[in-house]
Amino acid sequence: MERERKKEIDKILLETERKILSGEIKTTSLAEFRERQKEKRKQLYMQKVIFVIGGTASGKTYFIKQHFKGTDFARSDIYDFQQQAYEDAGYGKDSPVPFFAEFNCLLNAQNMHVQDIIDKLKDGKDIVAEQTLFKAKRRITYLDKIKENVENVRAELYVIIPDDERWDLNCKERQISSYKTYKNQMEQVFEFPNPAEGWDAIYVVKDNEITLKMDESNNDIIDKARKELEEENERLRKEEDEKQKKEELFESMNTRPFWHYCEVCGKKEFITAQEAYDSGWDYPPKMGYFGLLGPRTCGNCHLKDTLFWKIQTSGKLPIVIENNLTDKELKTWMRIKTEPESLLVEENE
Ligand SMILES: [Zn+2]
Question: How large is the average pLDDT for residues 78-86?
């Protein structure tokens, strides 16, 4: 019904636009006309954003293809933005993303995804979005941002829960881990969506059957999710703050004077990197990197007397094993390990 009505409205609006473009109707401002068309559409019908969520290989993409076939819903898939986020962070298609970087990449992907949805809605389109969205706090983040930026939008959610056989088949087709991995994951972390999150409709898709499942509105879920979000944001702010301080410290090491300790003869000088370089020191940031094993010598001492040389030429794996070091070597190593901070204050003998 709704779709029919929409088509009718579009037909009338597009007909006018066609006449303008063909010159049948003259206008001095096509841009403004289009802007008004958009407004008109908004007034005439509520836009829809539909989320299709579920575990890995549960059949989200397949469901979208089938269920939205022949409609003019625009698509927005988190997967595309995850790839983008990994790339932006410097991880290509085949390089694994280290655990510490994963979380930030996923958050960045989520931000890009929600922005894409907002842009498309503002452009007058209806959207079907694909995401995992196991957690209430993630779903709330999406809905908050969308409703902040777009008025008059109807939000629906489809939860895909395949039977084991189907899930197993999907995983085999994609040659990934057993479906049990993903099923367990879902059982452990999935929080079933509640209308209080802001959904106008929640459906469960199981064995090709779609069932409306609106639990009683529960604001405790929302309070808990908001608290989790607050804590998460606080943690991220702290991390960002520390990262920035660290960057500033590293930057300052290029110009500020700091302690240079020769690991061989014990000479020490409070000088800048440039002064050290000019008088023959081998020292970061000009030579090697802070915090990584390398020679730390004054202009009179030799590379082959350094801890770095000893480890490199040991014939074993070039890894420092603290138990095998002499007291002097251990002192050098501890100093290197905690650079650049260890070079800011004078060591007591
Ligand atoms: Zn020396």
Answer: 92
